[in-house]
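From: lab user (bench 3)
To: helpdesk
Subject: output format question, protein + adenosine-5'-triphosphate

Hello, I'm new to running complex predictions and I'm not sure whether the block I got back is the full result or only part of it. Here's what I submitted:
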Amino acid sequence: MHTITLIQGDGIGPEVTASAKQVIDALKLDIAWDVVNAGLDVYNETGELVPDSVYQSIEKNKVVLKGPITTPIGEGFRSINVMLRKKYDLYCNLRPALSIQGIETRYSDIDIILFRENTEGLYVGVEHVISDDEIHAEKIITRKGSERIIRAAFEYAEKHGRKKVTLVHKANILKLTDGMFLNIGKDISTEYPNILFEAIIIDNMCMQLVMNPNQFDVVVTMNLYGDILSDLCAGLIGGLGVIPGANIGETIAVFEAVHGSAPTIAGKNLANPTAILLSAAMLLDHIGEVKSGEKLRNAITSVLKSGVKTTDLGGDATTTEFTKAVIEALG
Ligand code: ATP
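Helpdesk reply: Thanks, we reran it on our side. This is the complete output you should expect:
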């Protein structure tokens, strides 16, 4: 029996996590849920952004399915998403961008696995006010942090028979921080002679991704570049509604969609639950329910191919209609 912590989040979070819970329940696995919540809704009710019960549940169950949590901009709040990644050292942010049959975009057969370093870089949030007119932000890159994410990318490539790892950097400008990340990548690549290694500057990477995304296989990069590139990759395969993600550490793993809380469509039954459903499929793989993960992916594809789509993909299905169709497709 697996117990999974479910954090509903806010914005479209409660709608898409409810969808994921229903779909996983329909798979009839030995899974129990520990439903908790954090974020703006909880803060408005209790004055606490993350109640202790959330930490206790994560530490006990170690596997989490999480809805998006809003970070109010410029009000002195730190991002809960970033805080959880840091607190539980979820250093590996895995964001696969895979073309899905049934979703029409300009591109086909995209299969890019993005590894984003998730705990350091500019996301450490160390900013200094030098004067009223000058503020500095620190970018922190460590050998340990770089080695483990780059190694994770190569290990993944080897395990899954992938051919190439592309490291993305800006070492021509950030010679020390990005320079170290790049050099570590070059060193580690020599341990994997069967996998092609290339390094590419972030600006060129953006252009290449738009011109010819099919040339990329496994991609590894630092925190902020990874965040931006994963939204770009989402755009290649149909948008934020369809790209899943996992934040993985040594002991705890948090599965969540790449998208945020999309407040403009929240509460309207319009959100596309595909991204969280695909994140849930990654969770099933993680807990050893690989066949069920595959079954879920196939069900999602067959629903999309049949033309049942939410409005972000040009359809008219509601969140609940799409969810119902996926459950039916599970058989
Ligand atoms: P954050 O800063 O929290 O990552 P963001 O600024 O990237 O958030 P999102 O909340 O991810 O913004 O959403 C951006 C837009 O993408 C939304 O306004 C919405 O139109 C669309 N979108 C995101 N997720 C979904 C979804 N699951 N279904 C439908 N549309 C979505």
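A quick orientation on your result: The radius of gyration is 20 Å. Let us know if anything else is unclear.
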